[in-house]
Specification:
By secondary structure, the chain is mainly α. It has two domains: 173 residues, no CATH class; 229 residues, no CATH class. It has 16 helices and seven strands. Helix 4 packs antiparallel against helix 6, helix 9 packs across helix 15 and helix 12 crosses helix 15. The protein is flat, with a radius of gyration of 26 Å. The termini are far apart. Keywords: Membrane, Transmembrane, Transmembrane helix. This is Integral membrane protein.
Length: 430
């Protein structure tokens, strides 16, 4: 069954799916490259990059395009720039906000390909789409390499497929409306053939994992609010940095776009600070409510909002992951899938024992999964500038995962315990 029938003119054969996939995602690659290159061209025409010709500027744009896809760049510094001997470094700090550009363009392509494909033929369109994207990435890596910037052709071909492939799958899934119409596999029938105990166990685990995702998303959302508050309170300091840079209107606009692209990274950094794990801004530095040690920083206006100095009430920020855990525990209570508590109550009649034990186990499961998701977010948001001491930026994934797991787990226990009082309906007066 076709996902969506598309009228064809009489006598005109339909475009092969692999070719349509090639066209759709090739178009997405070109559009994302133009969105990266146009600001650089604007700065070039405004008098910036005076030492570069247009070919060199195009290579810089290609390097930026690869960077927003997550491709690391190997930097080589001549003798005398960072020391007496030549130095090398790896630039692996990716602006996650700008990575959304190829993601959403691929999401649009995935929807269009899903409308044009039969259920059992979508793989042809996806194969053609990812194939052309890999070719474009490999070509960009090969053509944009210089003596100062080394790029792996294999990384250029494979790494961009992560963002593009995720966008394709999400877009196709949204257009299809279900995995059955997308890939032809009905998971509901497979689950129905399992035993009742297996379905109960699966429902419990699936609800707990979703509650863990709720906890992580809530923690990131609350951290985003904290980040916005910090930016608003330090707006004057940020403005003064802009004035000292004196980059002009166009240069200031490009710098602001870069900062906006880094906001998802900073949101994860804020969660690292609020959890107590902290984050690093270079070798030997740590910023957290428990300890703050910072060295010289680059002149980036957004860094003027850093929480530096003695903070008497910094410990209050540790409540952010706990509050997220409370929301996750309350959400799980409303989901009503605590089959482990029901099973334990049948096996052991002492309710004073089964209720706390099942709640603690629930908090452990949800907290661990939230910690895993937070560690993954930290891994994406951290990186290296490959320059001097700035080889370690962002929170440590392991520490952030452990802190978030513990704090969200505590919040889940609280939220699940107090949830019944929050769910009580008001008594109707007769």
């Amino acid at each position: 069954m076709k996902i969506l029938l598309r009228p064809k003119k009489p006598g005109v054969p339909p475009m092969p799916l692999w070719l349509q996939g090639t066209f759709e995602l090739g178009q997405a690659a070109v559009l994302s490259a133009l969105l990266v290159l146009l600001p650089l061209v604007g700065v070039w025409f405004a008098g910036g990059f005076t030492e570069r010709d247009f070919t060199s500027l195009a290579r810089l744009g290609g390097q930026a395009w690869l960077l927003i896809h997550g491709v690391p760049l190997s930097l080589t510094f001549p003798a005398g720039e960072l020391g007496e001997a030549p130095a090398t470094g790896l630039l692996s700090f990716f602006p996650l906000g700008l990575t959304l550009i190829p993601f959403f363009l691929s999401w649009r392509a995935g929807r269009r390909l899903a409308r044009a494909s039969y259920t059992d033929q979508l793989w042809q369109a996806l194969l053609g789409a990812l194939g052309i994207y890999a070719v474009i990435g490999a070509a960009a890596a090969y053509l944009c390499r210089t003596d100062a910037v080394g790029i792996s052709v294999a990384a250029g071909a494979l790494v961009p497929l992560i963002a593009a492939g995720a966008g394709l799958i999400v877009g196709a899934r949204i257009e299809a409306g279900s995995w059955v119409r997308l890939i032809g596999v009905d998971l509901t029938d497979w689950i129905a053939r399992t035993s009742q105990h297996s379905r109960w166990a699966g429902s419990y685990v699936w609800a707990a994992l979703r509650a863990g995702a709720v906890g992580t998303v809530a923690a990131l959302g609350l951290s985003a609010l904290l980040l916005v508050a910090a930016l608003a309170l330090n707006w004057a300091e940020m403005t003064s940095v802009y004035e000292r840079l004196d980059a002009g209107a166009l240069g200031g606009a490009v710098l602001t776009v870069v900062e906006l692209g880094l906001m998802p990274n900073f949101m994860v950094w804020t969660l690292g600070w609020a959890s107590g794990a902290g984050f690093s801004l270079g070798t030997g530095s740590i910023i957290s409510p428990l300890e703050t040690t910072v060295g010289p920083l680059p002149a980036l206006p957004v860094l003027a909002s850093l929480p530096i100095g003695t903070m008497e009430y910094g410990y209050v920020a540790l409540l952010i992951p706990v509050m997220a855990g409370i929301l996750a525990g309350w959400w799980f209570l409303r989901e009503g899938e605590n089959h482990f508590d029901e099973w334990l109550s049948i096996k052991i009649r002492a309710r004073w024992f089964t209720a706390p034990v099942s709640t603690l186990i629930l908090g452990a499961i949800v907290g661990v999964f939230s910690g895993i998701l937070a560690a993954g977010a930290a891994w994406l948001a951290r990186g290296s500038l490959g320059i001097g001491r700035f080889v370690g930026l962002g929170p440590d994934p392991l520490w952030l995962g452990l802190w978030v797991a513990a704090e969200v787990g505590i919040g889940v226990v609280i939220g699940y315990a107090v949830g019944p009082w929050l769910e009580r309906e008001p008594k109707l007066e007769v």
